[in-house]
Amino acid sequence: MRPSKRDLILAAAVRVIAADGIEGLSFETLADAAGLSKSGIIYHFPSRHDLLLGVHTHLATLWERELEDIAGAPAAELTPTGRLRAVVTSMGRTADLPELLMILDSRHHPEFREAWAGVDKRWMPEPDSTDAYLVQLIAYGLWAHDHVHHAPLDARARERLIAAALERIPS
Question: What is the spatial distance between Cα 135 and Cα 74, in angstroms, rounded to a whole number?
Fold first, then answer.
């Protein structure tokens, strides 16, 4: 199945953000990256706000699909342990820069936050489940590590840390 123009635009937007940050994303840079006219972009995303909301929603949807692929089922069909195992496995990888930038950007606008909140609500433990929440915080640390630390984790260290986090998931 051929991707829709909207999906092509969103994929191009992610590439622009990876190369130039959110500030580098404009209708002009996006039109060049997507191989479309500026008016073609505006047809699908009439404002920069609509475009950014589209990118947030697109990335959150991709992440939820990844979680479902890892877990083998949607969140509603899994135990809390099964959901947290998928989260740790997913977040054990290094964050893609566009994901990280968009997550940080989502803190500044309620609609952007909402794009991610549904995934969090379906997959993440509540803070009052202390042991499970600590494991989630370990996963966040693994995910962001290479962007905030002076030396990236090597593959063996990352695998050991993921395994250690998985062992700490309460049953």
Answer: 20
